[in-house]
Amino acid sequence: ALEKGKHVLAEKPLAKDVATGRELVEWYHQNVDTGRVTFGVAEQFRYLNAFIYAAEQARSFGKVIGFRHRLSGNVAPDMKYLQTEWRKKPEHQGGFLLDGGVHFIAGMRLLLGSEAKVAKVSAFTTQLQSHLPPVDTVDATFLLANGATGNFSVSFGTTFTGTDWAVACEKGSVSVDGTKVTVKPLGGEEKVVDKPDELGGVKQEVFAWAKSLVSGKQEPKQRPEEALADLEVLEAMLRSGESGGQPVELKLQI
């Protein structure tokens, strides 16, 4: 489609692994007139109003000094998202962690911002449920480029439930719970703001893509380099998990 001059908005993840993703991005820049034809990757977490607002509030609080992310759930064998063969018998690394996990990496990267991008990852992975190969759980510690650290935990095979998103900054903290954002200035009054979305951010991302086609300018949030950065973090956790928690350095973060 790109070779024929057609704009493309592809589903996440960008590719099955970083090597393939890098090859695809390099091919795009070398073989396509990127000023005329755009290649974007859809990721609705970058369009969730709660995350956009929370990221803005976090930036106003100065340097990131810590963060935590936890998502816990149980993907049952009869769950609709598991009724495709490529999910039941994944040939791609990470199984459900790759397919679903890039969403949460994208959300985390948005909250942290470019000044606190991930520099190094140490993680442990495991498979708790036999129907979710090859792994369904990851617990990781991240070292950020600014020297701060934080925790990232995702499991699709646990009996825990719920999510937790929080970023601590020098002048306050911000947390996200669904569409509600809690803002806590250091020494100030806490406030909770509701930031609902339509179709979980999908409508906003498709509208943004359509707008970019009209303007002729690539939508920054849909650049394939953003999706490649998401994929790199996820793959680094898997590689670290395979090596018993050995730290993995990241090189493609933006």
Record keyword descriptors for this entry.
single chain; 254 residues; alpha+beta; Dihydrodipicolinate Reductase, domain 2; two-stranded parallel sheet; globular; Gfo/Idh/MocA-like oxidoreductase C-terminal domain-containing protein; NAD(P)-bd_dom_sf; oxidoreductase activity; Gfo/Idh/MocA-like_OxRdtase_C
Order of helices and strands: EHEHEHHEEEEEEEHHE
> What is the CATH topology assignment of the domain at 44-200 and 231-242?
Dihydrodipicolinate Reductase, domain 2
Helix content: 25-40%
Low-confidence stretches: none
Distance between the termini: 27 Å
Overall geometry comes to: globular
Average of per-residue pLDDT values = 96
- What is the radius of gyration? 18 Å
So, the CATH homologous superfamily of the domain at 44-200 and 231-242? Dihydrodipicolinate Reductase, domain 2
Domain Gfo/Idh/MocA-like oxidoreductase C-terminal: 59-250
Protein name: Gfo/Idh/MocA-like oxidoreductase C-terminal domain-containing protein
InterPro entries: Gfo/Idh/MocA-like_OxRdtase_C (IPR004104), NAD(P)-bd_dom_sf (IPR036291)
Organism: Friedmanniomyces endolithicus
